[in-house]
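Lab meeting minutes (informal)
Scribe: AK
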Amino acid sequence: MTNHKTVTREMFDDVMVPNYAPGKIIPVRGEGSKLWDQDGNEFIDFAGGIAVNVLGHAHPALVDALKNQGEKLWHLSNVLANEPAIRLAQRLTDLTFAEKVFYANSGAEANEAALKLARRYAWEKFPAEKNNGIEKNEIIAFNNSFHGRTLFTVSVGGQAKYREGFEPVPGGISHVDFNDLDALAAKISDKTCAVIMEPIEGEGGIIPATQAFIEGVRALCDKHNALLIFDEVQTGVGRTGALYAYMNYGVTPDILTTAKALGGGFPIGAMLTTTEIAKSLVIGTHGSTYGGNPLACAVSEAVINIIANPEVLNGVKEKNKLFVDGLNTINEKYQIFDEVRSAGLLIGAALNEKWQGKAKDFLNAAQLEQVMVLVAGPSVVRFTPSLVIDNEEIKEGLARFERAVAKVVS
């Protein structure tokens, strides 16, 4: 029997597990970089579903792809292949270093697959009896990193708050400081099967790896026969002005994970790697019921076909300047940021000492001024809008954000 009760925000608290604390409004419609709530109020979206809505809301090409595929095939088990999955994999391998693709439903699942593959690859290629008796299964990650919410990925992520209450966690995992090559050199050994890193730490505060650091990590992995995994769940699919951030650095990983923007809002994740490494995932070693389903892959193919256009990627770099210049202008008036860190349209405005821990205050105030922003930890305001957001919408959204700042600091 259908329940025709009017949906309210209070109903969320009644029926949902309390691990989220969403805002007071309920959006019901989106178009491009604008959202409308139940009362018809318009919001400019600088959040993008946390770097997901890479082409904004209800992009016509994505809507068409979903409708067209929805009239053909929704789901096939992995006992059978499907055309959209094959086409998308071909596109991803043509555009990147990769030769093989594994599909999942999310970034956490893509990272789970990458970490499992790294351990299995080391187990096959460097068994203890051929590796001076050394078990090669240790994983090194970085403090303040974030790699997902499964038990394995939350253990690899470098933020203890996400592991609290879920111990004991899987072993063989250690953490060192990001951008500290000496610390990694002291930790890595022939026991290490993989190093996993975000080229730009996202949840940790929008902190880019330095060129010297990322090159040094690659060299240390090569020295110790460890795989280098790039978690590009947030930095991928054009977010930084390159299709994937590794291209900006000129450093190629052995495994790359991608999700979020990959489906433009439709759930899909993928792990990309080489033919040689992929050989370790033989039949029966890993799988995903919905991974590679025709609906998700059809939408993702439409996303990639648009984002891979040089005009779009160059536009990301131009829009970055509008954002950064606008935020710096706001800061000149209100003195709230230490710095504005950015790569393309992944932007973090780090609050200064006076405003430490107050990022959520700015988010809440912005919502009242009808602009949606994010936080990256307690002291960084984060912006991850659509990559094709109109320049006038950037200006209007920043004007609304300035009004929010003025109210917080008053």
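Next up, CB showed the second protein from the same session:
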Amino acid sequence: MARISASPSPVAVSAPDAPLIKAVGLRKVFPPSKRGGEPFTAVDGIDFELHRGEVFGFLGPNGAGKSSTMRMIGCVSPISGGELTILGMDPRVDSSRIKARLGVVPQEDSLDLELRVRENLLIYGRYFGLKRAEIAERTTELLEFVQLADRAESTVEPLSGGMKRRLTIARSLINSPEILILDEPTTGLDPQARHVVWDRLFRLKQAGTTLVLTTHYMDEAEQLCDRLVVMDHGRIAAEGSPRSLIERFSTREVLEIRFEPGSGAHEAAIAKAEGLIGTGERGSIDRLEELPDRILVYSDDGEAALAAVHGSGITPLASLVRRSSLEDVFLHLTGRTLVD
């Protein structure tokens, strides 16, 4: 794998175990539009800490406040209230020094499409004042790392979406950042391209790179994050590791049952299934969640719950037993799904 260790930085964090990022009561409020209206609170008093070497995630649907939080961390949007410390510095007075030690993968790729792949990294490295020889060496290493070495002399425009995303990640690493910020790193990619990006990010994690990312993909958060917060309407609903959140807020398994649209069986099944909640028997149901297209039945034994459902006279059109996920955690905490 390419060498991706960080270069010595000019400013040290105050203590080895001090958080690299710390937020207390962090707020972001946007003023009313020119047409009037009320101020909009995108981030409403959140607390979190990011420690060296971990992957920390913000999970939530669009509009939850994730990107606004990332823009404050990236020093491109001023905070409206509370406290934010990054690498031991205050972004209100030290934004330039902080930016020099960050790598940023924005939600939308901002590559120079008419330039060659290699040139995108060479030019970006000059923004950080790096010497040409260092940039060239680093570019070779990073293109190999993101599996684009064979496209180094190609122009960017004809590259696939996944390739462009990997190039954006390589570009963000050109200055050997201490913290890599990724805003929705795989949105819009097909499943195969997403897994390639995940593999590169996982390798960065193994090499000790500190990552902070936003996502609305539950599987992405489970794959990559050591710790995460679940956000909704600008607030933090819960915090912990993916596994601890699932254990705390959901059951071991989930039974999904579907019915013929318009048959009325959906409503009848809800009434019968509610009678199975908390019976204490094998297959006992912990709770139900009713969605427009299906009913979610939460139980530690999904197959036994399915047997209990059939035994109560419910006959679904289709059924599926799966393990609980962060999607179920979010649904339990907010009453809606991540894609709402």
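CB comment: Residues 75 and 91 are 6 Å apart (CA to CA).
No objections, moving on.
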